[in-house]
Amino acid sequence: MNALLVILGAAVGAPLRYLTDRAVQARHDTVFPWGTFTVNVVGSLVLGLIVGAAAAAVPHGLLLLIGVGFCGALTTYSTFSYEALGLREGGARFYAVAYVVISVAAALGAAFTGAAFAQAIWPGST
Questions:
Q1: Domain boundaries in the chain?
Q2: Which of 10, 31, 38, 48 is the most buried (most CB within 10 A)?
Q3: What's the whole-model pTM score?
Q4: Tens digits of per-residue pLDDT, 29-50?
């Protein structure tokens, strides 16, 4: 049953990642990978929310469905790495460094914000 929950979450997260990436990137005329940046930050926020609420209100199955399946498929470290290397190899070194620094800072900030928000809503969560 646990594997099925992860698969179901991933079945929603993966296509949503692709569609969001394409929609966001189509709105920006730049080499900066805004689509991947967006899904990684949003996924980190959702993961922070679900993990922050896990101790008090979220059943283990929902953590697997949303945290592991959905967020795991929505976010994409491999694409992030590929795009950062592509920027560097394409001569856009400033964008490559900015992408790495801003992405990591924003994703961590989003995860911490999500966890803090969850703890404010569900007292007793860790």
A1: 2-121
A2: 48
A3: 0.90
A4: 899 999 999 999 999 999 999 9
